[in-house]
Design a protein that fits this description.
Strands 1, 3, 4, 6 and 9 form a five-stranded antiparallel sheet that branches. Strands 5-2-7-8 form a four-stranded antiparallel sheet, with no helix packed on it. A hairpin with a 5-residue loop joins strand 3 and strand 4. 0% of the residues lie in helices and 60% in strands. It is elongated. The model has no long low-confidence stretch (mean pLDDT 96). By secondary structure, it is mostly beta strands. It has no helices and nine strands. The N and C termini lie close together (10 Å).
Length: 115
């Protein structure tokens, strides 16, 4: 389970090098709950492309008094060559790597909180 529980904690993806032809597709889905009673307050979906070696926020930090539970992440390599993908938590500009994988052309990185 990936939990974003402060307004300064977000989820990012970054590539180890520049792409050749096409940025990678990234989708991320999460549920926000109120800290006061844990009721669902929002469902958040992000669809974004990577930006080579520049980190991209795939799930923003939650609002104050909320907790965001990331339910799924998918990264699809559309490029014509393999790509090294890092998924990390950015907590007040301190990076915590969740995973770093090499995706061949056409391969996916899939995270599911349900597994």
């Amino acid at each position: 389970m990936i939990i974003l529980d402060t307004t300064t904690k977000s989820l990012e993806v970054v590539l180890a090098g520049a792409i050749t032809t096409t940025q990678l597709d990234v989708t991320c889905h999460a549920v926000d709950t109120l800290d006061s009673d844990m009721t669902v307050s929002d469902i958040v979906n992000t669809n974004i492309a990577t930006n080579s070696t520049t980190a991209v926020t795939i799930m923003a930090a939650p609002a104050a008094s909320h907790t965001r539970e990331v339910k799924s992440i998918t990264v699809h390599n559309n490029d014509t060559v393999s790509a090294t993908v890092t998924v990390r938590i950015n907590s007040s500009s301190t990076m915590f790597i969740l995973c770093k994988v090499i995706l061949a052309t056409g391969e996916n990185l899939v995270y599911s909180a349900e597994d």
